[in-house]
Structure formats: structure tokens, C-alpha cells
Amino acid sequence: MDRKSLAKLRRDLQALRHSQPKSAHLQRVARRLGRRKEDRGKHPIYVSEAFPHLRPLSIPDHKGRDLPPGTKNSILNQLEEDLDAWDTALSKPERGNEGRGGNGSQR
Fold first, then answer.
1. Distance of CA 75 to CAs 68, 78, 82, 94, Å?
2. Which stretches within 18-96 are classed as H helix?
3. Which domains does the chain have, with CATH numbers?
């Protein structure tokens, strides 16, 4: 994941807020954010491989019917949490040996 793809995903999620996406479209976005499908529960569950601390995401599959607005908004909120986690991960500076007894503390 890089900044360019993160910005595109953020724009896509914003556009989905103003439309009525099908569950298949939301499932594709979840996979693009690094979530994988697990077989548990009644509905498909997507868990984040990159951020295991994020809650599993249930995206009901209603065979092409529209999702209720509350369900859609809840899913989009959780996908935005994934975007925030990626944003935080990408903004952390790379640390070399600093803080591990490297050259930074020698006199």
C-alpha cells in the first residue's frame, strides 16, 4: 500500500457514501484494504491481515439487493478505520538501529 493508492481508496469510499453500493463492491474494497475472507458466522467476515487489532468486518451478501443505509454506513465507517490505520502506518518514519543500542547513544 502506498500514498497514491490510499488516496484513491479514500476517494472511492467517499463516493460510496453518496451512492447505494452492492455488497460485492464493498467486499472488493475490503480486499483492496488488505482484508481476507474467513468462513465463520452467517455472513462473510473479513479480517485485516496487516492490522490484526482491527475488528472483523461482516459484509452481508443479499444476492444483489441494496444494503440498508445504516448497514452501508457502518461498513463504510469500519473501512475508513482501515484507511486511518494504513495512513498511520505509512506516516511512521522508518527506524534503523536507533533505540536498540545502535550508534545513536555512543559518546
1. 11, 5, 11, 31
2. 23-32, 69-91
3. 3-86 (3.30.920.30)
27-84 pLDDT, tens per residue? 999 999 999 999 887 788 999 999 999 999 999 887 777 888 999 999 999 999 999 9
Owner of C-alpha cell 444476492: 63
Secondary element (H or E) of residue 13: helix 3-17
Backbone phi, psi, residue 77, to 5°: -60, -45
* CA terminus-to-terminus distance, the chain: 39
The CB density around residue 81, as the number of other CB atoms within 10 Å, is 16
Q: Is the pTM of the predicted complex or chain greater than 0.85?
A: no
Look-up: residue for cell 475472507? 37
